[in-house]
Amino acid sequence: MLPLNLAVIPWGILCGSLAIQRDFTVLEALLMPLIVFAGSAQLVATELIANNAPLATILFTTFIISSRHFLYGLAFRDKISKLPTKWRLSLGFLLTDELFALSGDNKAFKGVYRLFYALAAGGSFYLCWLLWNIIGIFAGAYLPDLTTLGLDFAIAVTFIALVIPSVTNFPMLITVLVAGISAVVFKLWQWQLDLVAASLLGMYAGYISYNIQAKFSLAQTAKEK
Amino acid sequence: MTLLTIFLLALITFTTRYLFLHPKIPVRLGPKMIRFLSFSAPAVLTAIWVPIIFVQQGQFIQSWTNPYLVAATVGVITAAKSKSVYLTLFISMAVFIVMRVGL
C-alpha cells in the first residue's frame, strides 16, 4: 500500500493548493478531502465551483466521474454486503481506486485478518490523502504550477505495476487491450463517460473471450475422447 | 453556498461507492455476472492509466520518444518480467525523471 500512498502525493498537493488558489476558505478546502475524498472528482469539482458553474452541472459531472465506483461496489458485493453495518459503511467510504486495485485477490475481504488489512490499507489512503491535501492547502501558494510537471505519470506507473502482472491468460490480455484502446479513443472524443464505457467494453471483451476459450477447450477434450 | 455544494458532492461520492454494498438493494449476482465482474479490476485500472500515457493536452502523443511513452514501455516490460511492484516503480520512474530533467 506504500507505493500507492506515495503515488498520490502530487495529486493530493495539487488538489489542496488548487482549492486555495481558487479562493476556497481553509475549511472548505479541508472538507473536500475529508468528506468528498476523491481525486479526479475533487479536482474537477473545484474548477467548476470556482467558475461558478450551475449546481446541477457540478453535481452531474461529479456523479459521472464517480460512477466507476458502482463497478467496485458490484465486484465486492458478495463479500461485503453480508458484513455488519459498521464494516459496510467504513469499507464503502474507503472504497477508492487504490483499495480496489489492492483487492483483486480472491481472498480479499474474507476473514477477520483480510478485513482489517483492507481497513488499514483504505484508512492509510484516507489519512495520506488528507495529509497531502493539507500540505497543498498550506504550501500551495509557494509551489510552482504542479499541473505542468508531468506528475500524473506516478499514477500511471503504479497502475502499470499492479495490472501487468495480473495479465496471465488470454481473456485478461483481451480485457486490457480493449479497455486501453477504447479509453484512448473515448478520451480523444472528450466523452465524459469515457472511463466507465471503456471499462465496460474491456470487461465484456474479457468475458466473451473467456466463454470462447472455455467452449474451445471443451470441444478439444471431447475430440480427444 | 460552497459548503452546501461540498456536502452534496460528498453524498454523491459516498453513494456511488456504497450503493451496491448495501444488502437491501435488490441485486443478485449470478455466476455470469460474477465472471463478468472478475474482469473489472484490470479493465478499470487500464482505462485509467493508458490515456495518461497516450493523450496529452487532448491530443494523441506526437513523438515516439515522449518520456511518458518510453518510461511506460519500460514499466510494462519490467512489470511483465519481474512481477515486482517496487522494481517497476523504481526503474520506470527513474527513466521518466532522467528523460524529463536530464535530456
Automatic annotation (TrEMBL), chain B:
Pfam families: AzlD (PF05437). InterPro entries: Brnchd-chn_aa_trnsp_AzlD. The chain crosses the membrane at residues 33-55, 85-102. Keywords: Membrane, Transmembrane, Transmembrane helix. It comes from the Bacteria. The keyword Transmembrane helix applies. This is Branched-chain amino acid ABC transporter. It comes from Thalassotalea profundi. The lineage of its organism: Bacteria, Pseudomonadati, Pseudomonadota, Gammaproteobacteria, Alteromonadales.
